[in-house]
Amino acid sequence: MSLVSLRTFDPAPAFVDAELATLSPPARVGEFELDLELRHAGLRRVRIRYEINGDIRHPTVFVAGGISAGRHVAANAADAADGWWDAQVGAGRAIDPSRACIVSVDWIGADGTLDAPIDPADQADAIAALLDHLAIGRLDAFVGSSYGAMVGLQFASRQPARVARLVAISGTHRAHPYSSAWRALQRRAVQLGSLQCDAIDGLALARQLALLSYRTPDEFDERFGAAQVVDGRVRVPSEDYLDHIGQAYAMRTPVTAFLRLSESIDLQRVVPGSIETPVTLVAIELDRLVPVADAYALAQGLRGETRVRVLRSRYGHDAFLKEPAAIAAVLAEALELPA
Amino acid sequence: MSLVSLRTFDPAPAFVDAELATLSPPARVGEFELDLELRHAGLRRVRIRYEINGDIRHPTVFVAGGISAGRHVAANAADAADGWWDAQVGAGRAIDPSRACIVSVDWIGADGTLDAPIDPADQADAIAALLDHLAIGRLDAFVGSSYGAMVGLQFASRQPARVARLVAISGTHRAHPYSSAWRALQRRAVQLGSLQCDAIDGLALARQLALLSYRTPDEFDERFGAAQVVDGRVRVPSEDYLDHIGQAYAMRTPVTAFLRLSESIDLQRVVPGSIETPVTLVAIELDRLVPVADAYALAQGLRGETRVRVLRSRYGHDAFLKEPAAIAAVLAEALELPA
């Protein structure tokens, strides 16, 4: 990693309202730019947007999710809106901002301005630069789910002195070739739409396809019934749901961000033996994207203390979002945060 | 079913060359038109193209495959080109035209001229009409794979007196809601392409998506390696293979045929208790399209003698095409054709 320049844009800590600020741990959002040497695209100016939730003197837990999850992990004093992991991060939750300082980022590329191949190792370098910027020497834990788990493994491999433990949920040292094919076809859906200036429909279709990989037949069987003929066409009941999922995602996601972060997953490659950090791996039995066998292969190669927890969930890959109790139990065991 | 008119186009039996004709069992292709009452679209003129391979006085075996498989099941005296099931149908194979008369059809809708919802039960009615046309009172066996298994179940349900036994491979009494969602998204890929007069690319993408449902992660893991960055884009090794699969399919398949036959799978609904015919069900453990659980549910509901054979194959749903030895063993056991 090469940090050629560093320019800060940190706003003053922002509080939503006085009462919340009084009752809640401090929180703030910030951003800064740096020139980062990308593995596949050379030196690029990137912007790192981050969020801090909790007192910086507490144990520091970096939290990262999937490619569509950003810095706003949970509602906090700086941003009262729902986060993507309120089930795990908040007062009384597994990661409580009154006992931990939660740090998180928007992935580089997430704003759509970086149109280049982004390696998960580049994300790890950006996080290291953020820690420098925040004067955080070492993370007490890195908790990553999905793409976040991949980046966590990269971080542990490259920055062994800067992370005490890693929890990697539904993400491993490699992209499975079948899952890569699935993603490549999602990117083609976007391209097919883009050819006719219909990027929204292409991106919506890509997201719908991705959703199938995040879930399981068991869930669909419980939720959806038989097909109907409507206006001379066959319509299956899940299409209404998929329409909603696709449209909502396409409206909030830059096409370039989706393409480059989807690609990034496929670039994942970590040598398990390069990691000495203690790791808790969480794998989901019905995960159609990250087979449990890959988690076992990773566990066998890791050099530090390793725990593997296998959960069975009808939500498959999305268990980290949809199985709050099981995930909370794993986090409590893995993190051992002070009471 | 209503047969309002019947018009025949049967050509004289055609033989490829004199020697083959001498050595091989007789074979011929034919077609006829009829007005068929479609469940979801009323009376329609449809054309039924069929192929007969073997002496009509032998035990009659109707053979049907997936939505993209047609009447040309195997090379024969009327058409020496490779068929889609040469591994099972031919001299010395499980279904030998010197001992059986193999009858097969192009699905109604397969030529792209029928732009209406087609129920699998409509296909069963068309087959019954063909048997009338050929003066075949009763099939000794119906062997169907994938969509062909679905249609076989419809046929057994509706024509109990016309079929002595059924072998249903990788197809059941219903479309699984998750698989239906997967197909609905394939149809959306076609629509996305069609909007910009790029039906070929849309259809190619649909076929590529379908292929993922026909195969397994195990197979992709064995065949394909890690992603590469090529000209500033990430390319995964399976893309070359998928390109070939998609283009070849799109060049030979009318868009309407794909859409209507894909829809047809989603309309599958048979009450298992309506079937008294002896049935051999073959299910594949890693089938991502037809879960083994659905085969068990079907078996529990059938009223006649029922055998279930579960195979494990890294080819998943495509095992009926890619596991010739295992399928041959099942067919030999199920059909008990005279030596």
UniProtKB/TrEMBL annotation, chains A, B:
Enzyme Commission number(s): 2.3.1.46
GO biological process: homoserine metabolic process; methionine biosynthetic process
The protein's enzyme class: transferase
Domain AB hydrolase-1: 84-324
Keyword rRNA processing: no
InterPro entries, A to Z: AB_hydrolase_1, AB_hydrolase_fold, HAT_MetX-like
GO MF annotations, alphabetized: homoserine O-acetyltransferase activity; homoserine O-succinyltransferase activity
Keyword Lipid metabolism: no
Entry annotation: catalytic residues: S146 (nucleophile), D287, H317
Keyword line: Acyltransferase, Transferase
NCBIfam families cross-referenced by the UniProt entry: PRK08775.1
Record-linked PANTHER family: HOMOSERINE O-ACETYLTRANSFERASE
Record-given protein name: Homoserine O-succinyltransferase
